[in-house]
Amino acid sequence: MKFSASQIAGLLNGTIEGDANASISTLSKIEEGVPGSISFLSNPKYTAYLYQTQASIVIVENTLELTGPVSATLIRVESAAAAFATLLEMYNQVKLNKSGISPQSFISPSAKVGTNIYAGEFSFVGENAVIGNNVKIYPQVYIGDNAVIGDNTTLFAGVKIYSETQIGKNCIIHAGTVIGSDGFRFNPENDHKKVPQIGNVIIEDDVEIGANCAIDRATLGSTILRKGVKFDNLIHIAHNVEIGEHTYFAAQGVVGGSTKIGKNCMISGQVGMVGHLQIADRTTMTAQTGISKSITKPGETYMGSPAFEISKYRKAYIQFRNLEALAKRVEQLEKQGK
């Protein structure tokens, strides 16, 4: 689709300098701009590219003063970064605005399906599943029996939703993620038999889960991701875990069974937590932190493995770096004492 500078300026409440009929069909970085693309300038470090770019339209801020001729049409706004983010969101909506049910998909006759859904090739919806309005089910998605998918939720290619899983409204589940697989429980005292996992997974509204994550169903009850949780790729959540509202979790994290994580926590990459812990609200964990004990005081930052409070960790690390010099001093003092 093509858009003119006047159309874009209207959407962004901006003013035009240049050709109001200039048209674009794609987006680009300012240093990689090509004819027919739109870009933006908000970081002063990239100002030189404004006078070189081949982009047809560039979004700039009202306060920008030009120091030379510019070939692109300019759209001036209060915040170029915010305006371009709005365009990115609109572009994504257009790109992902799929609809219709492929004849190569299967939806059980007992399933309840809302209006304006998209079901791609080889997608499967099981018995008694409930699919809300405006749901997008990409190719090769599996939705098990009795699962519930809320309005405006998107399941990208290859997502697997096991039976009884409940997913809220406005969620995004990226490719390859598995939700509702069995928790990892075996009984060494009973011939190592598998412990049946008969609970489910509940994902509340406005949750986004990255690619290739695994979220296990509960043994009893539910594994729960509360409203607004955001996951990166490659995260494993064990059975009966609960993640509090608006907690962010970066890639390659692992949470052991029955651990409860509070609200508004910030968890960096490769963090691991053992099971049966309580993590206070607003806890921050730096990359590769290993959590082996509950955290009860809200708002603290933890570092290291096993983890402890970051200011103590930094002091201890200074001593660790000086360990060789300290060892030599001790050795010299011992020689002097002989």
Describe this structure in words.
This protein has 338 residues and is an alpha/beta fold. The chain folds into two domains: 3-95, Udp-n-acetylmuramoylalanyl-d-glutamate--2,6- Diaminopimelate Ligase, Chain: A, domain 1 (3-Layer(aba) Sandwich); 100-313, UDP N-Acetylglucosamine Acyltransferase, domain 1, CATH 2.160.10. The protein is 16% helix and 29% strand. The chain has five helices and 40 strands. It has a ten-stranded parallel sheet with strand order 9-12-15-18-21-26-29-32-35-38, with no helix packed on it. A nine-stranded parallel sheet has the order 10-13-16-19-24-27-30-33-36, with no helix packed on it. A six-stranded parallel sheet has the order 8-11-14-17-20-25, with no helix packed on it. The longest helix has 16 residues, at 80-95. The chain is flat and about 85 Å long.
Count of helical stretches: 5
Question: How does the overall form come out from the CA principal axes?
Answer: flat
* CATH domain fold name of the largest domain: UDP N-Acetylglucosamine Acyltransferase, domain 1
Radius of gyration: 26 Å
Euclidean distance between termini CA atoms: 87 Å
Based on helices, strands and strand pairing, what is the structural class? alpha/beta
Report the sheet-strand fraction.
Answer: 25-35%
How many domains would you count in the coordinates? 2
Mean pLDDT over all positions: 94
Percent range of helical residues: 10-25%
GO biological process, one term: lipid A biosynthetic process
GO molecular function, one term: N-acyltransferase activity
InterPro entries: Hexapep, Hexapep_transf_CS, LpxD, Trimer_LpxA-like_sf, UDP_GlcNAc_AcTrfase_non-rep
Protein name: UDP-3-O-acylglucosamine N-acyltransferase
